[in-house]
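Quick start: what a row looks like.
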Amino acid sequence: ASHVLEHMLFPDAQLVLRESFRVLAPGGVARFVVPDLRAIVMEYIGQGTVADNHGEIPMLTGADRFSSRFLNASTKRQDGSPLYRLYTAMPNFHIHKWMYDGESLKRHMEQAGFTQVAVRGLNESAIEGIEAIEDPIRVAGGNGVCVEGIKPTW
């Protein structure tokens, strides 16, 4: 799952982790990618830069960049169909509700029952062929952190 958990309330995300564990075959691998809160905070305090994939962040102040990244809010008015404008105007559908770094997501996956949980890099995975489906824009440059865990075979 890529950039999904952060759009859920914390208890709902915990439920998704537990349900993912429940339905996964023994020995199966679960991989979750979320925006990296640590990278966002480091950028805010001037100790890094998160890659920009929207073309709007660099001109903003540190606080504005932090708010934009944390809330997943745009600094631009959304154009497009009336339905799309309605979707983007409804904050509960689009904003981030809980943020993670590698350490916190690792802990929550372990609490859900996963073992051998580890932070992984872009295309670094126990899942064969991950490079065919992983979008570098969602991970590279601090945009996301990947965490994998295995369902034990016991």
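That is the whole record. The mean pLDDT is 85. Residues 10-23 form the longest helix (14 residues).
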